[in-house]
Amino acid sequence: xxxxxxxxxxxxxxxxxxxxxxxxxxxxxxxxxxxxxxxxxxxxxxxxxxxxxxxxxxxxxxxxxxxxxxxxxxxxxxxxxxxxxxxxxxxxxxxxxxxxxxxxxxxxxxxxxxxxxxxxxxxxxxxxxxxxxxxxxxxxxxxxxxxxxxxxxxxxxxxxxxxxxxxxxxxxxxxxxxxxxxxxxxxxxxxxxxxxxxxxxxxxxxxxxxxxxxxxxxxxxxxxxxxxxxxxxxxxxxxxxxxxxxxxxxxxxxxxxxxxxxxxxxxxxxxxxxxxxxxxxxxxxxxxxxxx
Length: 292
Fold this sequence. Notes:
Layout: H1 2-23, E1 24-27, E2 31-37, E3 40-45, E4 49-52, E5 58-64, E6 68-71, E7 75-78, E8 84-95, H2 98-104, H3 108-127, H4 140-155, E9 160-171, H5 174-246, H6 248-263
Antiparallel strand pairs: 1-4, 2-3, 2-5, 6-8, 7-8, 8-9
């Protein structure tokens, strides 16, 4: 009898334990929960801690409370200046209404699939109103804020809040990129040609100015040398004249010696003159008299 009672008590304790275990659930601080009864939502739990539910009747669906990442597929958009570009964007979102989230998209996979066309359509809408250069300027942050607002209009209907939208890259399509590259290359080549032409022009101006200054310097130097040479010749002639007036015979002797040095300077000089020539007047007679 006692054994049967003990068995019954043990069974009761097990059943009570199972019921107690199925009656409580814990929500982590990074999660939020939706209590479902036969698949129908009953209540939402967004605070962390221990909570109660009806065992065997209600079940729990946990959802992330943290910010989630979403990488949108690349999309081709046309800017206001008719330039086509491929935009690769990403978004960050969080679930703010678990009930609405469960009723509309049910899970994160479906939510991301629903967000992709929303983000891409908003990108096309905003980019289509601005020129391509704006995407590369400081106004890009304003565009991202506008895109986030457009996406949020639809995302809030799914219990989702878009925290941020960013563009990872915005490139021209491959065909356009080559055309832009060729155009940029031609433009740089034109600028290089202009710079070389300006450099050549400046080089010619500098060379011409240097040649002009050189010519002026040479002319002035030549002029100065001619003046100095003229003054030297004048002084030399004056000295010769003074010497001639003082001693004509010595002057004649000195000039003859100069003539000998000039005429007989080279060792192979051959002169055919008469011995009685005036040129040799001082060779046989120190007084300069020519022998008859």
